Amino acid sequence: MDGVQIIQLQKYLDARGNLSVIEQFKDIPFKIERSYWIYDVPGGEKRGGHAYRENQEFIVALSGSFDVILDNGKEKETFHLNRSYYGLLVPKGIWREMDNFSTNSLALILASTKYDENDYIRDYQEYLRFI
Ligand code: TYD
Fold first, then answer.
1. How far does CA 9 lie from the centroid of its chain?
2. What is the pLDDT of residues 3-22, one digit of tens each?
3. Is ligand 1 within 6 A of the CB of residue 36?
């Protein structure tokens, strides 16, 4: 899908454990304006169900696993995220849902814009008209 990408992050392994890192413009192609995380998702719950007009995001499963389902109005693709050393780059204008969260999963999301409810398209029919 156009612009969607799994990005492998640097992994520094030593006897004390592992470390991975994300730097703006180096590991991901945008300036990080905001970070948020999703946790304690009850079994069977879904998140997302929206697209952004401008915001781009990078999603990492810091712990556990979940699925990100992307839909550009023509095709649909599911990404299963389950490692903290790679993430999914989601460009603007793509409909997305997240589900299948494992117990104790933790999703880190880095965003290219500040929170703005007006940037959301939460109605799928409106999304289809938008694209
Ligand atoms: P929402 O974007 O609907 O979550 P998800 O995409 O995971 O389904 O956001 C849930 C609530 O959190 C909503 O009331 C708006 C608020 N929120 C903020 O205030 N700032 C933020 O950066 C985000 C992402 C959400």
1. 15
2. 999 999 999 999 999 999 99
3. yes
